Amino acid sequence: MKQILFVCLGNICRSPLAEGIAKRIAQEKVLPLRVESAGTSSWHEGEPPCKNSIEIAAKKGVDISTQRSRPVSQHDKHTFDYIVAMDTQNKNDLESKGFQNVYLLGDFGGFEGSDVPDPYYFRGIEGFEKVYTMIETALYDLLEKVENDTI
Ligand code: 4NP
């Protein structure tokens, strides 16, 4: 079974969405995948995802409310086949912590390597809707490549 870890800064806004959406796609397509998420920081360790991420996911029928933030660990290096960063800063931070096989989510789904914007300081839910859609589009492409062993 392939294992994927999604990583952002706080593990409360973006990577929890990626985890929830990837699990939903895996379920839909009956893919044998193990999916988790983590943060490059431990600032929000133990906390649930941010309110807007929970809300936008719920609106799409994805329940992420039981997730809890955790920082990446050394153990993750040996566990996950794919480590997928939400933005370039996350990718650089992971690489400086010695992680290899780090991918950028924006390299999938036609986003030309764009960062998934950090919605932490967004005011309304609209920004989260855009982030949700970007993550979902990129994930369909990524998971298809994982399934077909083309990455
Ligand atoms: P995330 O968003 O990396 O998508 O979980 C953030 C969460 C918290 C902070 C920054 C980004 N923060 O500065 O506390």
Care to describe what's here?
The chain starts with a strand and ends with a helix. Helix content is 40%, strand content 14%. It has a single domain, classed as Response regulator (Rossmann fold, 3-Layer(aba) Sandwich). Helix 1 packs across helix 5. It has five helices and four strands. The chain is α/β, with parallel strands linked by helices and 151 residues long. Helix 1 links the parallel strand 1 and strand 2. 4-nitrophenyl phosphate binds next to loops.
Furnish the topology, listing elements before pairings.
Blueprint: E1 2-8, H1 14-28, E2 33-39, H2 51-59, H3 74-79, E3 82-85, H4 88-96, E4 102-104, H5 126-147
Parallel strand pairs: 1-2, 1-3, 3-4
Helix pairs in contact: 1-5
The structure holds 4-nitrophenyl phosphate (4NP).
4-nitrophenyl phosphate is lined by residues 8-14, 43, 118, 120.
Whole-number radius of gyration? 14 Å
**CATH architecture group name:** 3-Layer(aba) Sandwich
The domain tally reads 1
What is the CATH domain class? Alpha Beta
Sum up the structure in keywords.
globular, alpha/beta, Rossmann fold, binds 4-nitrophenyl phosphate, 40% helix, 14% strand, 5 helices
Summarize the structure.
This protein is of the alpha/beta class and 151 residues long.
